[in-house]
Amino acid sequence: MTSALDTFLFGLYPYICLTVFLVGSLIRFDRDQYTWKSDSSQMLRTGSLRWGSNLFHVGVLFLFFGHGVGMLTPHAVYEHFISAGQKQLMAMISGGIAGTLGFIGVSLLLHRRLADPRIRATSKTSDIALLVLLWVQLALGLGSIALSAQHLDGGLMMRFGEWAQRIVTFRPGAVEQLAEAGWLFKLHMALGMTVFLVFPFTRLVHVWSGFATVFYVLRPYQLARSRRLNLPQGHLQPGGAPAATPAVPPAAAAPRELPVRSPGVRAA
Length: 268
Prior knowledge:
By secondary structure, the protein is mainly alpha-helical. It contains ten helices and no strands. Helix 1 runs parallel beside helix 8, helix 2 (about 50-70) runs antiparallel to helix 4 (about 85-115) and helix 4 (about 85-115) runs antiparallel to helix 6 (about 125-150). The longest helix has about 30 residues, at about 85-115.
């Protein structure tokens, strides 16, 4: 039996978060394009930024695509190649490695924001709050691995995937799929949806620009025209080569001054 809180968090809250995520990002891009950036603090102090940023991005990007593919891919697509239990074990190992990298990275970034007075003075409240949110989310994800080890048959992971697929396809019965999930799993899922909720109001919007670089690879070729083709016919020699341009005296090359007419005088 599902409670009213479960119905809201896992039946209604996902649609609220997705709506704010998409519509809010579009509005911010339309109205505040000058804030569409990551606000790097590298110029203030490099320090642990390189290690923290690289570890964080590698870990989080792997987790993002791993969760998306793992939860939104129907079981019938991969059941002939890998069982549900094997898929869960693979997700635990790969997700544990990526989660550890991301957790170390976000810990370095958060420590840098809070411990360095110069960076702390130029940091927005949303910057620190976002790092804290991601730190807690990654910690919950790592903590859920121990609970997942108690259900190696893959049944619980199958229900998580069925919940996500029912949500994105607007099918009923999504909340009931999480009836047997523990509170740690539910908190991890609710906090993950909250990241999408705050996405348009933080520096996370620069992620859209990262995905947009794919279109740069697929851009059409530029059509370049030679200036030789734009020359008048008289400037071409019989062989097609440009004719030599006669030297122009300095006096003739000077621009001619045009008479300026007073606004109040009518031309004759």
